[in-house]
Specification:
alpha+beta; about 35% strand; six-stranded antiparallel β-sheet
Length: about 290
Amino acid sequence: MSIRRIGLVAKTGLAAAAEHLTAAAAWLEKRDIAVVADTQTAALAHLRVPTFSREELPKHVDLLLVLGGDGTLLGMADRIGKAGVGVPILGVNFGRLGFLTEVRLDELYPALEAVLAGHAHIHERRLLRARTLKGDAIASEHLALNDVVVTRGATSRVIELSVAVDGGFVMVVKGDGLILASPTGSTAYNLAANGPIVHPDVAAMLLTPIAPHTLANRPIVIPGTSTIEVSLGPENRSEVFTTFDGQAGHQLVADERVSVTLAPNPVCIVRAATRSYYDNLREKLGWGER
């Protein structure tokens, strides 16, 4: 993979990233790598480089360098999926846990060196493709790297959801909602809702009820070849919303259903060269600490 142009993206308003963006741009230009940025990032660091919107940026680069937390990376991963390009992401953690932005600031330049030399550890992560269906028509379509969440509104009480897999009825969930997660998203909201951790190389999807009103509703791991459909249960009387990686969402109404599959094209993420997936889990979750 030849890297000739790199796009810079920072979390919106992250003033602490400005000096590092300026330094990274100068470092890359000394190595004859063209630098571009999204409009907000260029303004944040006063960069004099070509700019694009965040939606257009993935179409114009060979690599995205993202400075921020997992939310910033998720937003760009979804945009890469929509653009239909295979641009890898190097995420530098300015957040807290950073399961996706796992490269630390002190590892930035060694990671860039590895990418330019073709030695970087690049991991493919599968996206979820979520379609909101109204009858046989597609009302909307979204991509999500972590999860699709169907949940109650702010003033709603219990909601009732009907779940089917490959056309066969599975269960009715009564509670606060349901998480449909990818293996990558298994360490996000899914983990907080007591769902299982699934290695990102496993082709699977997860169904995790949120605060179910019966102990019989348990998380389920579904084959990655399946299609999951979620619709409102016949006794539902509350507002229900669907969100996609926490980046976008809409209200689900009675005659709509959400259909979720694994998307065919993965997103590529540059891994930290000095730590394995299990090292990252141990560090972020505090395993082995007393």
